[in-house]
Design goal:
Largest sheet: 5 strands, parallel
Strand content: 35-45%
Order of helices and strands: HHEEEEEEEEEEEE
Number of helices: 2
Helix content: under 10%
Number of strands: 12
Shape: globular
Radius of gyration: 15 Å
């Protein structure tokens, strides 16, 4: 595998590690091909996305009377910016991100909530951006910090 291929397959953990060590890894392409969005759905149950996986430039997450747990640490971003659109109705979504990975949380909550519970800290320059757009009704979305490459704390199964 060439160095270019390895660069394009970096996980968010690896971006954070390399940038923190003073390296300048090549970011994912900015103009990724327009692909249909990918989906994660938790209806009357739960869905976990963890381990090594491809983070699409557009990901839609739906939690209705259920939950979705998303670990971004081992995610390989397809583009320099990913947009996660989250709909939570009487359900919850927990997103875990490595320290320094920029996550922008925005949206609307009615009798629910959205929160970024990560400690304040500097954004890693050159790290792919994750935008989380939330629409929740009696549900919630929480962004937590991933602990040093370990499995995230959270829903024990």
């Amino acid at each position: 595998m060439s160095a270019t291929e390895q660069q394009s397959n970096l996980t968010l953990d690896e971006y954070a590690e390399r940038i923190g060590a003073g390296e300048t890894p090549e970011p994912p392409p900015t103009g990724a091909a327009k692909r249909p969005p990918r989906w994660l759905v938790g209806i009357l149950g739960g869905t976990d996305q963890k381990g090594r996986w491809r983070l699409a430039s557009r990901l839609r997450i739906v939690a209705v009377l259920g939950g979705v747990s998303l670990d971004l640490g081992q995610a390989e971003p397809e583009a320099s910016e990913s947009v996660l659109t989250v709909v939570a109705v009487l359900g919850g979504v927990e997103i875990t991100a490595p320290a320094g990975v920029p996550v922008q949380l925005s949206g609307f909550s009615l009798l629910g909530g959205k929160s970024d519970e990560r400690p304040p800290g500097p954004r890693l320059p050159g790290c792919p951006l994750v935008r989380v757009r939330v629409c929740s009704l009696f549900g919630g979305v929480k962004v937590k910090q991933r602990k040093d490459g370990s499995e995230p704390e959270g829903r024990g199964r």
